[in-house]
Write a structure and sequence with these properties.
- The structure holds two protein chains of two kinds.
- By secondary structure, chain A is mainly alpha-helical.
- Chain A has a domain of 38 residues.
- Helix content of chain A is 39%, strand content 7%.
- Chain A is built from three helices and two strands.
- In chain A, strands 1-2 form a two-stranded antiparallel sheet.
- In chain A, strand 1 and strand 2 form a beta hairpin.
- Chain B is α+β, with helices and mostly antiparallel strands.
- Chain B has three domains: 287 residues, no CATH class; 112 residues, no CATH class; 60 residues, Arc Repressor Mutant, subunit A.
- In chain B, a hairpin with a 5-residue loop joins strand 8 and strand 9.
- Chain B is elongated, with a radius of gyration of 29 Å.
- The chains are: A mainly alpha, B alpha+beta.
- At the A-B interface, helix 1, helix 3 and strand 2 of A face helix 1, strand 9, strand 15 and strand 16 of B.
- Strand 2 of chain A pairs antiparallel with strand 9 of chain B, so a sheet runs across the interface.
Chain lengths: 96, 480
Amino acid sequence: MALTIEQMRHVAKLARLELSDEKLAQFMGHINALMAHFERLQSLPTESVEPTSHSIPVYNAFREDVPGTPLPREEALANAPQARDGLFIVPRIVED
Amino acid sequence: MRYIPSIGMEVHAQLLTESKMFCACPTRFGDAPNTNVCPICLGLPGTLPVPNKKAIEHVIRTALALNCRIAPVALFYRKNYFYPDLPKGYQISQYGEVHPIGTHGYLEMVVNGERKRVRIKRVHLEEDTGKLFHYLPGESEVDYNRAGVPLMEIVTDFPPDLHSPEEAKEYLLQLRAILTYLGVCDGKMEEGSLRCEPNISVAPEGAPSLGVKTELKNLNSFRSVVRGIEFEVNRQIALLERGEPVVQETRGWNEESGYSFPMRTKEYEQDYRYFPEPDIVPIQITEEWLNALRATIPELPLAKWERYQREYQLSAYDASVLTADYETAMFFEGCVAHGCEPKAACNWITVELAGRLNEDNKRISDTPLTPAHLADLLTLIKNGTISGRIAKELFDEVYQTGRMPSEIVRERGLTQISDEQVLRAVVKQVVNENHDAVQKYRSGKTGVLGFLVGQVMKATQGRANPQRVQELLREELERI
């Protein structure tokens, strides 16, 4: 299964990457090479294999419900490209 | 033609915890913007989320109460999207058929006297998002205090079991009652700690498939949920009647105008590219843990509702008012344990107490009132120590001060006057002073008796035993 240029555009948009057609074609080559590897993996019988999204045998690492001290607001906002009245400012995300 | 609505319910409940889902920031509502944030909930690089055990237990208990299958191993997933309400670029949530904490459950309720089961598809845990504002043109403002607050999602199964606005309302009422009984959510729709997004379709009766559905948002109260669903059902039926198609879309409810309107939705909404959250190890839910949690589940609202009718001979209505809220039910049970006659306790709780609480916008626990107070008051009424009128005044004072009614009665001599000699003297005086009323009575207008009783009550500052007064008045009037 190889990605089409349309699918590449969609994936790039999801990742908010603005790529020229040239770059898109170049990355498509890379990704499709990877896809070929996955295709080989997919041919293996894995019905009896446990998923290894978590491969270490550790379960239930929790914290107790005890509130701690939050970050001072100036620090929280220190890296914000824009802030005002204690709020982060971002480009408008709804249409008027 | 008759149309059958089908309603699916997606409910989000903010969990009652002190700290957030994956960090220790406080969950307090109403603090100054961005004062309850830290590197974890701000999504700063190099941070690691650690789940709040209490939030997980809240969800497991809810899933148990909703008769779910509990995942032996539950997983968190990343739901990827770029939107500034979460700074990480993804929401930690749950996903799939087997990994949410609870699946394949059901809620039982009674509608129009009939028991009904509503299947639950899943009960899962995720994090709430930050709050966006749009104060100035060209920009949006973000407050991340709510980002990372534990949020439980409860979704009904498909195809929907709910087929009318009334059923949807009862489902939400019953669900809210269960959540408050479990103490996992405060159930306040107006504050947004309980949110409901129904999806609604209608189809001609007997149609082989469901109609096109719309999703409804901005329902900020129970009233809005019912009105919104009613409106949407009627709107869709009107469209179909005119031969126009229903458009699949998300619509927002406007409570003032009483209309729903199409909403713009996020781009690529379906493209969340879920994958298992690598930063959080799996949650293993053992039988032992389940049993311990099962033991913490109280008698649930429906069981209580049935028991109150059976055991205390209360009406279905009385029982539903008492059991709608855990605190009220426990207060009532406390009164009964203190020896109150159930129906009398029920009346005082659902009329006097509920009236005061409603007026003051308070909960019982915000007042100094305890079941012992009400039991004391009811005893004073029952043994004839005080009149009903004095009791109401006393109740008001007890509600505000938390003093024992019998103590106040003793201190102020509010004891009811039943002594015949004392009462007869007052009755005679009232008869002498109200010639007109007496004449009317004698000419057959016996309705003035109430007025005369009132005069006696007034003269005794409400302490006279009204029944005795009536008897004595009749005697005096006949004698003249």
